[in-house]
Specification:
alpha+beta; six-stranded antiparallel sheet; two-stranded antiparallel sheet; about 20% helix; elongated
């Protein structure tokens, strides 16, 4: 039987479910249109803030410039010594204890919304501020608290392990009530 229909007979009837050549480009066009519309809706929708707790930040996000307006970091001795409330938050950590290869040199009372933990390592002093966390926070979360590396405008990788270790200590005490005066903090005299 020949597949050539030059013998004058009509071509066989098309099967009802056979794809028609004209429908394929039309379907492709509709598919591309749907994808473009979906992409436009996603791109134009308002950004929503997460409803749950913020995701954990990396140690690189800890840096938050906190030098006083003069530009010079406040020396550790200028901070009042911690009271019972501050010490409870970082317990069992105490002055003189090791912390990630460094040594805790001072634990301060709350000042401008933050308590401060100073540690030295390899001749450098690091000021770690502990305050209350807020939505959109950059810093390492420890329950309702957050830890920042303060007093510098450039990242110092030597501070990250110390900050991580402090966060682990505070997480153990996350249910401890915030010390009086602790807040989201102020930087350079301006509330944030």
């Amino acid at each position: 039987m020949s597949t050539d229909h030059n013998d004058g007979s009509p071509p066989p009837a098309a099967e009802p479910n056979a794809a028609r050549p004209v429908a394929q480009p039309r379907m492709l066009l509709i598919g591309v249109g749907v994808l473009a519309l979906g992409a436009a809706v996603i791109a134009l929708r308002p950004k929503r803030r997460p409803s749950g707790p913020p995701a954990q930040s990396s140690a690189r996000d800890l840096l938050r410039p906190g030098a006083p307006p003069s530009g010079a970091p406040t020396p550790p001795g200028a901070y009042s010594a911690a009271g019972a409330a501050e010490l409870a938050l970082v317990a069992p950590l105490a002055v003189g204890d090791p912390l990630a290869g460094g040594v805790v040199t001072r634990i301060s009372a709350v000042r401008q919304g933050f308590m401060h933990v100073f540690a030295t390592k390899d001749g450098q002093t690091f000021n770690l501020g502990v305050g209350l966390a807020r939505a959109g926070v950059t810093g390492l979360r420890a329950g309702p608290y957050v830890v920042y590396i303060l007093g510098s405008t450039t990242p110092n990788p030597a501070a990250y392990p110390i900050a991580d270790a402090l966060v682990r200590v505070i997480r153990l005490n996350a249910a401890t009530p915030a010390p009086p005066g602790m807040s989201e903090g102020t930087f350079g005299g301006a509330a944030r």
